[in-house]
From TrEMBL:
Residues 51-279 form the Xylose isomerase-like TIM barrel domain. InterPro entries: IolE/XylAMocC-like (IPR050312), Xyl_isomerase-like_sf (IPR036237), Xyl_isomerase-like_TIM-brl (IPR013022). This is Sugar phosphate isomerase/epimerase. One of its GO terms (molecular function) is isomerase activity. Pfam families: AP_endonuc_2 (PF01261). It comes from Aerophobetes bacterium.
Length: 281
């Protein structure tokens, strides 16, 4: 049975203490903590990626690990993932995050696949990442923690096929994948069910959000220019019923982790999205 969690990137105005209480009250089952390398204090604005109060810092994570685990468990939630932004070659920091994950009884951490920019050679980036992941796999096996890469626009694994090509060299106990249909609607879309079948045991976690495409402008020749943007969960292109049916069909039992970047106020979003997801399960 799939469980539902929240990725704290979307709760920037709440502290960790506030967020776990709210999530437990709304009957979420888990929390995916956002982890940055260094926390910038006193940022003026509060947004998903800046001044987010619900973000943990890798610098102080070890000393806070027991506390964070304590407040999470006290309200009956599980820590389902530590979502870092570490690159696959930051071995020392990856090891530190895995040590902390072990203390927190969290089974996995996210690391970032490298970005692809025209001018970079995809083939050399691929080989370099593969070599780095060999080391990451060794660290992961030492701690019994899984390192997850995310299907994400702009990186070298935007699709299930591209990701499978990279991770199929590794043991799925230690290297896994975050499936993200909202990202894949911007880049990397493939038939949901086919991608899930292809990924098999590597499919370890799912991010839940939605996207749509908008006409940005039209030039003098009548050519339309489109761009992707975030959408509310029920209003985007991803048919979440179809995604969840696919996940059921492949026997996925992990988390559906809410990462809804739409414009709904946080309280309302947390409330409405879980109701919607439960209706689809």
């Amino acid at each position: 049975k799939m469980k539902i969690s929240v990725f704290t990137v979307i709760t920037p105005e709440f502290t960790p203490e506030e967020v776990v209480k709210r999530l437990a009250h709304l009957r979420y089952e888990g929390v995916e903590w956002r982890v940055v390398t260094v926390l910038k204090e006193n940022e003026q604005e509060t947004s998903f990626w800046k001044g987010n109060k619900c973000t943990l810092s890798l610098e102080t994570l070890e000393e806070k690990a027991d506390y964070i685990r304590g407040i999470t468990e006290a309200v009956g939630l599980e820590i389902c993932n530590l979502a870092t932004y570490l690159k696959p070659n930051e071995f020392g920091k990856i090891e530190k995050a895995m040590q902390v994950a072990k203390i927190m009884e969290c089974p996995q951490i996210r690391i970032n696949a490298p970005s692809y920019e025209p001018g970079n050679s995809y083939n050399s980036l691929f080989q370099e990442t593969r070599k780095n992941l060999e080391k990451v796999e060794k660290i992961a096996s030492k701690y019994g923690i899984k390192a997850l890469l995310e299907l994400h626009m702009g990186n070298i694994i935007p699709s299930a096929s591209a990701a499978h090509r990279l991770i199929s060299f590794f043991d799925p106990r230690y290297i896994g994948l975050i499936y993200d249909p909202g990202n894949m609607m911007q880049e990397g879309y493939e038939n949901w069910h086919m991608g899930m079948e292809l990924l098999g045991e590597y499919l370890a976690h799912v991010h839940v959000k939605n996207s749509k495409w908008m006409i940005e402008k039209k030039n003098k020749k009548g050519v339309f220019f489109w761009r992707p943007t975030w959408a509310r969960l029920k209003e985007g292109i991803v048919d979440w019923k179809e995604v969840i049916n696919g996940l059921k069909a492949v026997g996925y039992k992990g988390y559906l982790s809410l990462e809804d970047f739409s414009d709904i106020p946080t309280e309302k979003k947390l409330n409405e999205d879980i109701e919607y997801l439960k209706s689809l399960k």
